[in-house]
Amino acid sequence: MSYTQQIDGIPYKLKEPYDFSFISRYGKVFKVFDEQGINVCFGVDDGTHRYFVKFAGAKPVNFDACNGDTAFAIDCLQNAVAVYRDLKHPSLIKYVKSETIGGGYAAVFDWVDAKGIEPLNSPDYLKFMQMPIDAKIQAFEDIVAFHAHVAAKGYVALDFYDGSILYDYDAGKVIICDIDFYQKSPYIGDIGLWGSTRFVSPEECTKGATMDEITNVYTMGATAFSLFAYDDRLQEKWPLNMQLYEVAKKAVNDERATRQQSIAQFIAEWDAAKY
After folding, report:
1. Contact criterion met (CB below 8 Å) for 44 and 28
2. Rounded CA gap, 25 and 13, in Å?
3. What's the confidence (pLDDT) of residue 36?
4. d(Cα 73, Cα 230) in Å, to the nearest integer?
5. If the chain, 275 residues long, is cut into consecutive pieces of 10 residues, what is the mean pLDDT of each piece?
6. Architecture of domain 3-110
7. Which of 41, 245, 253, 262 could form a disulfide with 238 if both were Cys (CB 3.0 to 4.6 A apart)?
8. Residue 273, pLDDT score
9. Torsion angle, alpha carbons of 127, 11, 71, 186, to 10
10. pLDDT one-digit tens code per residue, 89-131
11. How far, in Å, CA of 69 to CA of 104, rounded?
């Protein structure tokens, strides 16, 4: 069951009603994201700037992911704020502030005029996939460069997938928008980590397994296949040279010891294979 509410004339759905009148403190709402897992998100305009407000404490329509526990969602978002601060980077959405408000917790970011590249086969996805190959290569390499920064800061990229990627077509720039579940490396987790199965490494699905920079390597290889080959890992579907295919294929090997052992090694092999 879902409930439809309105804010500034924009309808959105929740699992149960929630008073979002406090959002007016940030500005007038021009966009609501009500299917974003455990948070409800708003695009707001205060007359001078636009912001993206991520709120934990209400129950969006897909809230079953954390068994109805709003305290869990609030804790996750509070923990995520430290990650955004630590991983500040030109390719990462800019964190502005956060606070306890409205019976929950809000994190505020600068708004970016960019488009997502998922779900699969959506108009936005197809638009990105049909970009010139050089532009897609640059976007991918910017994503990898950000994850080299992630590794250097001692984090492992968990729950990274194409839904974490925005693209600003006017600026020709990729923007990473969702790193809430990145963890300090090495991270030992449990079965059931969130994320697209197209991006998740074997160790992320194995209870008690270690996740670290080698896990990040797998994620970057999976990203290459997602961006260049519609996630098809067959050689005949790969649009770049076969040397680059071999670099990406090595990265997504189920055996950790066979992958590149760092993002830096992945970058070095990728760069060498381009020429």
Report:
1. yes
2. 21
3. 74
4. 32
5. 91 94 98 89 97 95 71 94 98 98 98 90 91 96 98 95 94 95 89 70 88 97 94 91 97 97 98 92
6. 2-Layer Sandwich (3.30)
7. 245
8. 97
9. 0
10. 999 999 999 999 999 999 999 999 999 988 888 899 999 999 9
11. 12
Write down the domain spans for the chain: 3-110, 115-273
- The CATH architecture annotation of domain 115-273 reads Orthogonal Bundle (1.10)
The one-letter code for the residue type at 203 is E
Name residue, tokens 């409930």: 3
Residue 56 sits at φ, ψ, to 5 deg, of -115, 135
Of 216, 188, 181, 160, the closest CA to residue 78 belongs to 181
Q: Give yes or no on whether 3-110 and 115-273 have one common fold.
A: no
What was the pLDDT predicted at 64? 67
pLDDT at position 35 is 83
- pTM (2 decimals)? 0.94
